[in-house]
């Protein structure tokens, strides 16, 4: 898991402050457990993390059907009425998800997310678990 989550919070805040319209940021493990969050309700962050686990699995399955793809999900963007959802691979078994309103510009968001992942990618790693225990 992430070492010293408190030190991680300011980096998530920096992402939120750097892109207008961000409502919530969630860092999650591949199996849908919330590792860290910024903004929004903790219960909502847990629901987003759980939903993201299914979405990353679906995106990976679709990627395997694309010729010349390595089958790995790098980023998913979903546009909804009045909102955007972004999810990016952030390290082995870890993902970064952002919920925003329509004022968030997709290019800026993806660049800022990528910068964050590069800066702290080693800390955005969740070890695999078996039967609820880290292996």
Features:
135 residues, alpha+beta, globular, 38% helix, Beta-Lactamase, 5-stranded antiparallel sheet
Q: How would you describe this protein?
A:
This protein has 135 residues and is of the alpha+beta class. The protein has one domain: 2-Layer Sandwich (Beta-Lactamase). Helix content is 38%, strand content 30%. The protein is built from three helices and seven strands. The protein has helices spanning 5-18, 42-63, 106-120; strands spanning 22-29, 34-38, 75-80, 83-91, 94-101, 129-130, 133-134. It has a five-stranded antiparallel beta sheet, with helices on both faces. The longest helix is centred in the middle third of the chain and has 22 residues, at 42-63. It is globular. 27% of the residues are buried. The mean pLDDT is 85.
CATH fold-level name: Beta-Lactamase
Q: How are the strands of the biggest sheet laid out side by side? A: 2-1-5-4-3
* CATH superfamily (homologous) name: Dynein light chain 2a, cytoplasmic
Q: How confident overall, as mean pLDDT?
A: 85
Our Rg estimate from Cα atoms comes to: 14 Å
Let me know the largest β-sheet.
5 strands, antiparallel
Which CATH class applies here? Answer: Alpha Beta
H and E string: HEEHEEEHEE
Low-pLDDT parts are none
State the helicity in percent bands. Answer: 25-40%
What percent of residues are in strands? 25-35%
Which architecture name does CATH use? Answer: 2-Layer Sandwich
- Overall 3D shape: globular
How many beta-strand runs?
Answer: 7
